[in-house]
Design a protein that fits this description.
8-stranded parallel β-barrel, about 45% helix, alpha/beta
Amino acid sequence: MKNNDIKLSIPNIRRPRLINVIKSHGCIRILETHNPISALIAEKASANDIDSEENVEYQGFWSSSLTDSVSQGKPDIELLDIKNRISNISDIFEVTSKPLIIDGDTGGKIEHLSFNIRSLERLGVSAIIIEDKTGLKKNSLLGNEVEQKQDTIESFCTKIKKGKESQLTEEFMIIARVESLILDAGMEDALERAFAYSESGADGIMIHSRHQDGKEIFDFAKQYRSKYPHKVLVCVPTSYNEIKFDELKQAGFNIVIYANHMLRAAYKAMEYTSEQILQNGRTSEIESHFLSIKRILDLVPGTR
């Protein structure tokens, strides 16, 4: 990294950058990164938006429990402990400078969450998102296909309060993830929970949905914003992937997380590559699909 980037990577400088970029942009793009090389790609990525023709980039990283687990060949059931997750983030932070949000799953035991938050703060993580489920965690996009149980409002509010009491820095954020729409509990339940979590001190709300049209996401945002115009509002458009960033920004969202796409892209390419080498008995036919060795070397700082 260049000297300025190294300075930006210092924990006390990196940590508040998430709040600052939200204030300056209104709504930001966050990309999943499951290892240092994917984070380097995300940090350097930029493109001209085809609608506005403006140059755009990602403002930070998402440390996903799903992609962290899958990249280690393990199920997404909160199997990786916080030390494992922190170790991976530490490796990412060694070579990047942008802020990071960690997927905290259920947040674990209340007694453990306080210690984990302070560890994340020391490292320079900007925010944790915890979901209002209890018991063995299963991936949200499975919905009611598997057994998933929401925590009680009272219990989850207590978890939020204890988490906020434990943090040592003002800028660190605890964002509550509402699973009501995922589990078909309805809009009324989603809003009741979001309002209660916000009153309990959550810095923001992440609302999740499995529906492809995104209608309930917009409906939720409109009603939530009428009561909390200044709280951070987060969405993850994995299912409703035809909706564009600018539409989500216009609806009142502050953070749009592209939550698993780097891993999905990488492993699809590796699967194809491994099959093609076997089929052709050589790599010549697929060389055009790869980054050159020179591009790889240029991507990693300090190689030359």
